[in-house]
Amino acid sequence: MPTPDSPVVLSRWVSPGNRHLNSRYGELIWPLAPLIDNPGTSLFKIHWLPCPEALREQVKLPAWTMINGELRPTFLRDRGVRALTRTSAPDMRHTIGEWIRLARWLDQRGITDLAECTEDKWRQYPDERWKDGVGRDRAEKVLGSLTDLWAFDQLSARPAGIARPPWDIEGIDDFLPAADGTTGRENATEPLDPQVLGPLLVWAIRFIDDFADDIIAAWREHRRLTDLAAATPSTRAGYAALAALAAGEAGIPAFEINGTLRLARTFIAATTGASLRQVDHANPRHGLADRAAREPAACPMDVPVTGQINGRPWREHMDFTEALPLMRHLGTAAMIVILYLTGMRPQEAQGLRSGCCPDPEPAADGSPGRHLIRSHHFKNVTDDDGHHVSAGAEREVPWVAITPVVHAIRVLERFVPAGEFLFSATRHDFLYRRELHGVLKTGTLNGRIEDFVDWVNQEALAQGLHDQTIPQDPLGAIGVSRFRRTLAWHVARRPGGLIALAIQYGHMRTLLDARTSSGYASRSRHGIHGVLDVETALAAADTAAKLRDRVAAGEKISGPAASRALTAAATTPRFEGRIVPRTFARKAATFLARDGVVLYDNPDAFLICAFKHDNALCDPEPGATAPRQYACQSGCGNTVRTDSHARQLRERADEIEYLAAFTPGPLGRRLRRNADKLRAIADTHTATARPAEALT
Predict the structure, then answer these.
(1) 66 phi/psi in degrees, rounded to 5
(2) Helix/strand/coil (H/E/C) assignment for every residue in 524-561
(3) How many CB atoms neighbour CB 110 within 10 A?
(4) pTM confidence score
(5) How far apart are CA 267 and CA 447, in angstroms?
(6) Closest CA to 97 of 161, 48, 34
(7) What is the largest CA-CA distance in the chain?
(8) Cα separation, 34 vs 23, whole angstroms
(9) Are 618 and 633 in contact (CB under 8 A)?
(10) 364-406 pLDDT, tens digit each
(11) What is the pLDDT of residues 512-543, one digit of tens each?
């Protein structure tokens, strides 16, 4: 039994490098920080005051047992491969939160002893719990947390005798909320809309490639001026300079905050030679703040502007008041580029350190080597005893970094010292320069992305770039967790899967050869490839459904694989909703492995590929389950076209011919030949297409 003075976390569970403060069993706040070594995890605490006093001690004991003990192997044997003897601090916090919630429900019914939580009470509680709106996926975790209360109560030194939940015996399906979509979305991680991602990525790369030098130079000058203002003593010359500023006809340096113009006192002190104290004294005497609100002036710094937008300098000067916000946006841009163009999980990107991507040595033949990123992963990392490892572990297989990612890392390394986290909360706290724990947390990053979008939209309008604003995503806020899913969406649904094709950024001098880049962000067959399999399977199912709909509407079909495609379309299930990748990844891989009966849409080639490996002319890798859609060849035995494809071919031919009319010389003739070629393909379809009944 713990005593009131017993530590909340016993020393055996605290890693040697963890220096966070512990607490005592008898206190009402239990910090879980001694268990947390992951820099991306917040330092959670357990607050016991909300737990009813009558049940508090009975709940605290199994909670302490969970923090310092481990579940029996016999308990875990039939509970799935992901069951852990010891889980993470965030999971513990969630679990204990559910216990406190149950205790409050019991207390409202006059129950002051956990032993009175009988099977009847367990059967009543889930329906009450789901009234707040809980999806089935989360509800499953809630029931698991409540089962843990029974398990750890049994393991404690003085069991309260709470009953075993009936769902642990009968199965949880009958206790979960209805799967009718009324209690919250199962899969909140939806891909970003391409109309959102395109300009978002354009501006993120623009920050890295075009603006970074100016922004970092402005930040350094801002720090110099700030330090100078703080160190400048009060002198007669300084006060005279302030008086001259007040008497002059020029405006007073100001900055805007929350829509209000304020006196730029630090900039004024640094540029006039006055002390901050003198600025504060001169302000009411000369009405500087009032003048600043009526006649605001800029705060230009002596920093060269080298970045451009469409061939023009993006700033007349670097302003003192925007140096820190721009540094904040620069870090956000780097996170966007890294997350999207690698497919890392947010925690993996948060755990990157300065120096994680060294310049490679040339290959034996003198060709440049690939940049590799060494990183840690945190999800499901356990030790030999099945205990969660908060510090994570280094990946056995590094990430392959393409040029924009390398540039983003190099920019971060310019203000993050070697060995420190690239997204250190301290290094990215540009305004206050505080010593903060770990790295920028997910919630902070999500907020910074929204701020970045707001800045971009204002800047795009100011620069006359109305077509480069970032629209609101129809599925909600842009969050760091959505980039990984979006990467898989683009790879699965855009021919070739090369994200560089979607960047559409003229200043980017990165050319990826499709055949050498198909290992994009490659590593082991897990993680991003599992997400990719899911998205590819969904795309293939959508293609089959569209083919069924077109044929049912009376469209004819042509191509050497037409009959096989109709069979595939008839046997492929239609997915009315999104599939949770965690539960669908294995099925997706099996679905894609059915050689010859998986349909891939290729909108650039105006066809469907009924991929059969031995027939493919696109030179797929041995064992590949998908075509190289960017290398689609005419005459391939996997080709299928419908009347819709023929119509699209002719529409595209008309567009090309319209362009050719305004294009002189050889280029115009080449465009006309391309238009003729597309019409010839459409004519071939018309001549050979047959109704579905004639092919089945």
Answers:
(1) -65, -40
(2) CCCCHHHHHHHHHHHHHHHHHHHHHHHHHCCCCEECCC
(3) 8
(4) 0.72
(5) 28
(6) 48
(7) 99
(8) 9
(9) yes
(10) 777 778 888 988 877 778 777 777 788 888 877 788 788 899 9
(11) 333 233 333 333 334 566 677 777 888 888 89
